[in-house]
Specification:
Elements: E1 4-8, H1 14-27, H2 47-53, E2 57-63, E3 66-75, E4 81-88, H3 97-108, E5 115-120, H4 124-133, E6 137-142, E7 151-156
Parallel strand pairs: 4-5
Antiparallel strand pairs: 1-2, 2-3, 3-4, 5-7, 6-7
Length: about 160
């Protein structure tokens, strides 16, 4: 972890980022209810498309030159940075990579108007990580479905 580096993702990393993202998402599947409702219109994330479009910042996270995760960052109409995704290979969860990555991202992309992110309310590990480790505050809950799962909205100034 001493050699953690973050770089803007390149097209040749898209497939590996896709695989790591899918694995990280799958590792959380057990926390979602079986009858969870999907949001309408939510398309599958394609790192190849995101990198090609260059509308958002797509980052690759490396440890000792091994690609271990990624992040997706955008900026909203109020010039607030939005952390859309932050993911680390599940085999490395719990080892401090997420926190170290967040610290580096915050330094690389300072925002005088703050940061925002959303995470499902059933992912308590994510909630604790963003509040207790990264200094975010929960400001509201959105999109609560019949399944009782909503999206916590976090901000950090």
């Amino acid at each position: 972890m001493n050699n953690l580096m973050i770089r803007v993702a390149s097209l040749d990393q898209a497939d590996t980022l896709q695989e790591i993202h899918a694995a990280a998402f799958s590792s959380n599947a057990r926390f979602f209810p079986d009858d969870m409702e999907e949001e309408d219109g939510e398309e599958e994330l394609s790192f190849r498309s995101l990198i090609e479009m260059q509308v958002k910042v797509i980052l690759s996270i490396f440890d000792n030159n091994n690609l271990i995760g990624g992040a997706v960052i955008s900026t909203d109409e109020h010039n607030v940075k939005v952390l859309e995704r932050l993911f680390i290979s599940p085999c490395l969860h719990g080892n401090g990579y997420g926190y170290l990555t967040w610290e580096k991202i915050e330094k690389m992309y300072p925002s005088s108007n703050g940061w925002r992110l959303r995470t499902p309310s059933c992912l308590i590990n994510n909630v604790c990580f963003y509040v207790n480790k990264c200094g975010f505050s929960i400001v509201r809950v959105e999109d609560v479905g019949n399944d009782g799962i909503g999206m916590y909205v976090f901000t950090k100034l």
